[in-house]
Specification:
The chain has 2 helices and no strands. With 64 residues, the chain is an all-alpha fold. The chain has a domain of 30 residues. This is Transposase.
């Protein structure tokens, strides 16, 4: 089962180790809950890579 990849994992451009290494560069949560780990940075990469508007990205990155 180690080689199994969940279907939505293909949308995440950063591996967990890369996210952990980049955490010092992200702002801390101030008064509201932070979003799920790799979701926002991966969504931004997806938008920039494919030249889309945020509203046009796959549902895995929403809410926009």
């Amino acid at each position: 089962m180690l080689g199994m990849i969940r279907s939505h994992d293909r949308y995440f451009w950063l591996m967990p180790q890369q996210m952990q290494d980049s955490q010092p560069y992200f702002p801390k949560a101030c008064g509201r809950a932070q979003c799920a780990g790799r979701k926002v940075p991966s969504g931004i990469i997806y938008v920039k890579r494919y030249g889309l508007r945020w509203q046009d990205v796959p549902a895995v990155y929403r809410p926009y």
